[in-house]
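Module 6 notes. Inverse folding takes a fixed backbone as the condition and produces residue identities as the prediction. Think of it as a translation problem where the source language is geometry and the target language is the twenty amino acids. Below is one complete input and output pair. Work through it position by position during the lab.
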């Protein structure tokens, strides 16, 4: 007799820290597709621990299908209602509060299961239908990705784009109760802390220099100590150097960048890398090579477009040895650009993911002293609309909502664009 444990990495690590588990753990799973397959494979596993944040339906349907197993459903206190409790009890599922899950389950493991688990096995045809329904329902709504946000020069808004994108996805998944963890990594080791400033993270106690001092790959417990969690969105942040002195003493090498990305991939579904300009930057180039998607943020001015033209002629992107099909442009601050998106795509052979409008809301947030991404401060602005479109492209997901501007917001955006044009003139 054995036990299967399902949930995110944090839950599994905490649960396995229990000093006395009465029966051995036969397997673990971090997503419901793998969990469904393990339930079918491990016939002798009798104790099933389900710690997914949205695992209620999965637990109830699994208990209907595998009647000889005992299921423990881990839920937050505010989500445990009388309706949920009655539905679980009728199927022999134990509902356990997340805060005391380890102690409560450890005390009950190995005890007699009771009459609820002595029901007649379900008919094979019915079982096949239930299993297919479970798989179709629990297909992950968002795929796992590593995104590299970079540029060909500084000052193009790549950090604001990286922070806004990561915060938007993290905030949406948190509000939608989707088990999807997002981590932002500040790989621009210049000591500016701009990513942290956008999120209100100042003078963080840990930075990349701490990771560089480790002589082995860290566990989740150690990684969690190196990260800072943004409470408003649920976004995890690995801050960069916290001062220019720290930046001078921290050598963010290609090897260190690859170690960090490979470690975070085990624990996070979306890893967003805020990189420096990749020209003559071997660390940024290596991060681009190991990322699933690369977004080059540019301001489509005549000067920048000439730089991009020189890059295309010299085949600099081809020399990076990165998959060019994964590279896209993000046009930032497009107001006043004399070229259309289609003209830029045809000229340089790089598809444009999205065009971002720099309305006054971005500058308003930046100059207000309030440390919050623009997409949270002004969710109906033109800039937030562009970030939402970028998130859909970055995660290959059509479920992410499109924030449509209200008539009043559109009027403000028109005023903003006129204001910026007059200012530039």
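Target side of the pair, the amino acids:
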């Amino acid at each position: 007799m054995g036990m299967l444990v399902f949930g995110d990495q944090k839950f599994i690590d905490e649960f396995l820290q229990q000093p006395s588990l009465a029966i051995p753990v036969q397997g673990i799973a971090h997503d419901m597709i793998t969990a469904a397959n393990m339930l079918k494979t491990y016939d002798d596993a009798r104790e099933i621990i389900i710690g997914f944040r949205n695992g209620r339906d999965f637990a109830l349907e699994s208990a209907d299908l595998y009647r000889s197993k005992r299921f423990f459903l881990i839920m937050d206190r505010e989500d445990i209602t009388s309706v949920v409790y009655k539905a679980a009890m009728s199927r022999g599922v134990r509902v356990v509060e997340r805060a005391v899950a380890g102690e409560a389950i450890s005390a009950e493991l190995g005890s007699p299961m009771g009459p609820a688990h002595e029901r007649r096995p379900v008919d094979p045809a019915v079982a096949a239908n239930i299993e297919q329904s479970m798989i179709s329902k629990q297909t992950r709504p968002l795929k796992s990705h590593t995104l590299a946000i970079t540029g060909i020069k500084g000052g193009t808004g790549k950090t604001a784009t990286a922070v806004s994108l990561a915060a938007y996805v993290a905030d949406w998944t948190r509000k939608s109760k989707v088990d999807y963890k997002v981590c932002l990594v500040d790989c621009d080791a210049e000591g500016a802390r701009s990513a942290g400033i956008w999120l209100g993270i100042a003078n963080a106690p840990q930075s990349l220099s701490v990771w560089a001092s480790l002589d082995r790959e860290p566990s989740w417990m150690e990684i969690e100590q190196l990260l800072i969690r943004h409470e408003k969105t649920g976004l995890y942040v690995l801050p960069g150097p916290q001062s220019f002195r720290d930046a001078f003493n921290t050598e963010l090498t290609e090897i260190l960048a690859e170690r960090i990305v490979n470690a975070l991939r085990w624990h996070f579904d979306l890893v967003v890398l805020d990189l420096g300009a990749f020209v003559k930057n071997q660390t940024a180039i290596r991060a681009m090579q190991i990322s699933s998607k690369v977004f080059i943020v540019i301001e489509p001015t005549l000067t920048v477009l000439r730089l991009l033209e020189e890059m295309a002629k010299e085949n600099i992107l081809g020399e990076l040895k990165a998959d060019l099909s994964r590279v896209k442009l993000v046009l930032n601050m497009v107001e006043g650009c004399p070229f259309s998106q289609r003209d830029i795509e045809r000229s340089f052979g790089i598809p444009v993911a999205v065009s971002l409008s720099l309305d006054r809301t971005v500058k308003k947030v930046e100059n207000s002293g309030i440390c919050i991404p623009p997409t949270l401060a002004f969710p109906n602005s033109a800039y937030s609309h562009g970030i939402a479109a970028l998130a859909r492209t970055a995660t290959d997901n059509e479920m992410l909502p499109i924030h449509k501007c209200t008539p009043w917001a559109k009027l403000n955006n028109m005023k903003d664009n006129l204001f910026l044009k007059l200012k530039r003139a």
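Reference fact for the lab report: The radius of gyration is 25 Å.
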